[in-house]
Amino acid sequence: MADDNKVAPTGNDSEGVQKEQNSIPTTKAQRSAKFITTGVKIGGNYIKHYSKKLFNPDLDRSELNEDNAADIYQSLSELKGSALKVAQMLSMDKNLLPQAYVDKFTQSQYNAPPLSGPLIVQTFKKYFGKNPDQIFDKFNIRSTNAASIGQVHEAELDGKKLAIKIQYPGVGDSISSDLKLVKPFAFRMLGMSEKELDIYMREVEERLLEETDYELEVRRSIEFSTACSVLEHVVFPKYYPELSSKRIITMDWLDGQHLREFLATKPSQELRNQIGQALWDFYNFQQHELRAVHADPHPGNFMITPEGNLGVIDFGCIKEMPEDFYYPFFSLTSTNLLDNKEETIKAFRLLDMIHQNDTPAQIEFFYTQYKEMIELFAMPYINDHFDFSETAFFDKLYKFGERLKKMPEFKQARGVKHFIYVNRTNFGLYNILHELKAEVKTDTYKPHVVLEY
Amino acid sequence: MATTESIQNAYIDFVLTEGMQPKSVYIFAKQNEMTEAEFYQFYGSFEAVEQSIWADFARKTLTEIRTQEVWGGYTAREKALSFFYGFFELLKGSRSFAVYSINKQPKGFSTPKVFEQLKAIYENFADEILKEGIETSELNDRKFFSKRYKDALWIQFVFVLNFWINDNSTGFEKTDEAIEKGVNVTFDLFQRSPIDNLLEYGKFLVQNGGIKDRMGF
Q1: B188–A22: do the CB atoms touch at under 8 Å?
Q2: Residue A90: its pLDDT value, please?
Q3: In this predicted complex, what is the ipTM?
Q4: Helix, strand, coil: what percent of chain B each, to 5?
């Protein structure tokens, strides 16, 4: 693509050296075979690493990690579908993964191999009884980007440029079996306990299955974009329910750049702050006013328009927050509550962070750890503004995460399942803001707080 | 005045309501207000009617997919995919008849009589796209084997047809998957693959590596 200002909503193909994939591993057996190959390759990478280390004892693991990440990414992107989704998800948790994994996985947010043209035509015929070229004035049969469980095509109707998202058939069915395949890898990579992973996987499965329902996504997109229309510098494409179906979404094409491309243009601090503020407002308005949040803050879901607005293009993943989670959790962000040890412990109990049968020593231990975590998490909320370019804050977060990982006490599952997406959302947001190096007014949409239980 | 189409439709209507073939051409003609002679002007037997119904599915599919704007830009692989999707989309409208017609065929390896015309049209089409694919070197021209490519495509077709008959998924989504994956795998086999390189390497070694002498051939 020559003109960098005009890229498709979910990615660009400038990195698309990736070979066009002509077959997708079909059966579970084939998919497993794919993973086994990866396993073998990773084994090979270790052998390579240790044989090199024999001669050069100073060699650190980053080359090894990089090799592994490349192989895992390769196999995930050939699998397509939900496995890729998990790759995307893992890439959000920079705190949990070594940098090399993150870099490779971030690629998956932009590219995946395409589906066949005739299948696209078939999907249209099935849902609308017409070929795409009979519905639109122009329709590009070659997809511009992959959207992990589908792909995006460019079209034109009545002089309007449209983006058409088309889902691969049978995605829903393969999600559960894909997740089972990913599990051993995630287990090893995240170093989580089996039980913890189970809770995680179940919640993830639920969200992923929702994401395959494009009718639901269109409804939500319209709902959320209407509710969020009060926000400044946040724009949404218009959705066309009459041109959408269970596996097709039609929306306006948003011109703009992805975060990484945007940053490459060396935008001014003022512009970065504007985008950062839009992001902050977008997320906090949803969390605290709508109590349901766009829970997929990966950079591929945003476009920065030429006017300096933040375009939001994917409402596939929405996390609703029930009151019995919202109030105990967000009330903790208020210093007044966190200073009151008794009330804080009550809140921790409500959130399942401290268990019924914990000993007083355990209660003390988890209270201290979680208090520190919440304090870190709530830092941006303490003053009326926060500078996300501050590396010190992120270093502290990262170090804290590292420390927790090493503590045997945390091998056990703690915390209600809602944490998975809420944490992912907020830390994802923090990460994007950090990449933007934005300074943000954080008192625009404040958490609602209850001081006593 | 009867036409091939009116006879086809009347025949489909009859077998689906009665669950079997008409007892005789006489009865069928009488019911549809034509003479027996008129019927024979178009078809020699009921079997011929059924054959032509299947053949027409293929013809209609071909006409339909060839008018699609994207057709010209398709590779051989995509043309094959397009035929499969188009055919089964069309067949959806006559699923009851298709199920009836297929289920009464004897199980076996030979092509059922009712498919004969359809197979001829299909193979014609397969030949055309395969030749095209070989010319553009999208597909690999292999001695002996490239002539059998179209047989592989026919087997693929019969497989998907049987898959579709037993498919209970909403909108026959599973069939779409079977097509996308099956046809792609078949075409992957037609493409140049590591096996070809291996064979060629073997040939080279035999000719130049002196293996023959050493092995005492």
Answers
A1: yes
A2: 45
A3: 0.77
A4: 75, 0, 25
On whether both B109 and B174 belong to a single domain, the answer is yes
Q: Are B146 and B187 found together in one domain? A: yes
Judge whether B36 lies within some domain.
yes
Q: Which domain holds residue A298?
A: 259-453
> Residues B78, B180: one domain?
yes
Interior/surface letters B172-208, b for 16+ CB within 10 angstroms, e for the rest: bbbbbbbbbbbbbebbeebeeeeeeeeeeeeeeeeee
User: CB under 8 Å, gap of 24 or more: what pairs does A173-179 form?
Assistant: A174/A31, A174/A81, A174/A82, A175/A81, A175/A82, A175/A205, A175/A208, A175/A209, A175/A212, A176/A205, A177/A28, A177/A31, A178/A31, A178/A79, A178/A81, A178/A82, A178/A83, A178/A86, A179/A82, A179/A86, A179/A204, A179/A205, A179/A208
**Average pLDDT, rounded, for chain A:** 74
Task: Confirm whether A264 is domain-assigned.
Answer: yes
Q: How far apart are CA A236 and CA B138, in angstroms?
A: 42
Task: Give A33's pLDDT tier (boundaries 50, 70, 90).
Answer: very low
Q: How far is CA B133 from CA A285, B62, B184, B191, in A?
A: 56, 18, 14, 10
- What percentage of residues in chain A have a pLDDT greater than 70? 64
Q: Are residues B34 and B114 in the same domain?
A: no
| Cβ–Cβ contact B190 with A under 8 A | no
Beta carbons of A116 and B77 less than 8 Å apart: yes
- Closest partner residue to A122 (CB to CB) among B69, B79, B85 is B85
Tally of domains within chain A: 1
Interface check B33 vs A, CB under 8 A:
no
Taking the CA of residue A62 and the nearest CA in chain B, the distance in Å comes to 33
Nearest to A119 among B85, B185, B187 (CB): B85
Overall pTM > 0.95: no
pLDDT at A14: 36
For residue A377, is it within any domain? yes
Instruction: Count residue pairs from A and B with Cβ separation < 8 A.
Output: 68
